[in-house]
Amino acid sequence: MPQRPLAVVTGASSGIGFELARCCAEHDMDLVVAADLPEIEQAAHELRSTGVEVTPLKVDLALTDGVDRLCETIGGLNRPVDCLLANAGQGLGHAFLDQDFEAARKVVDTNITGTIYLIHRIGREMRIRGEGRILITGSIAGFTPGSFQAVYNGTKAFIDSFSFALREELKDSGVTVTCLMPGATDTEFFDRAEMADTAVAQGKKDDPAFVARVGFDAMMDGEGDVIAGWKNKLMSAMANITPAGMLAGQHRKMTEPGSGQK
């Protein structure tokens, strides 16, 4: 019996990451799932109900050592990674100068440093084999100066740009790179980012299962980028023609602490 493909999904304990892992499992892929929360064990238990093999790992991917641990776990399976879904990410609300800097730096280390280090390690192996799929979770937030979410939006601007550049570099290599760019999604993101009292947190949000399906299908089709939902597509199009200062002001209305109570 042929071996199933292997997918690695980060940030898979809940939300978009868990739903991406579910998409992989439903397409008969074995999984390595990682997150920095103990809930990754329960997520793995649920995913096993589809009949695939699931290896969970609780690890902090903001740390270089954490990425190394994940790669060691993958290496121990002695199997190539067919799909890498680099979804781990953190947000942080409030004005930048009011934030704890260590918390802000962890956002950068999780969203950027850990993400690109993992892609560097696994992507090299894919390029040597001449095959593989990489899905990177960016965000439409990367198109907008993020008042009261400045570090997060800045990291997503980096990730969105990085994804397009990497895709071009890997053109004709057999390795595809897809950037999933969600908008506000109904996950634990806003609570973890201390943004529960903001207008964006209290507004209508997308279903993470829908977002994941859009991203997964785009990855399997080898598309370069995909924005989930027509409203988010419209917002990203408007961001391309709206002055940055105006965008920052509009963002403030959605993310300033207490904006959900005005």
Automatic annotation (TrEMBL):
Single GO MF descriptor: oxidoreductase activity
Record CDD domains: SDR_c
InterPro entries recorded: NAD(P)-bd_dom_sf, Sc_DH/Rdtase_CS, SDR_fam
User: Under which name does UniProt file this protein?
Assistant: SDR family NAD(P)-dependent oxidoreductase
Q: Which PROSITE patterns does the annotation name? A: ADH_SHORT
Instruction: Name the UniProt key words of this record, in alphabetical order.
Output: Oxidoreductase
Q: What is its EC number?
A: 1.-.-.-
Q: Which domain of life is it from?
A: Bacteria
Q: Which family does it belong to?
A: Belongs to the short-chain dehydrogenases/reductases (SDR) family.
Tell me the SUPFAM superfamilies matching this sequence.
Answer: NAD(P)-binding Rossmann-fold domains
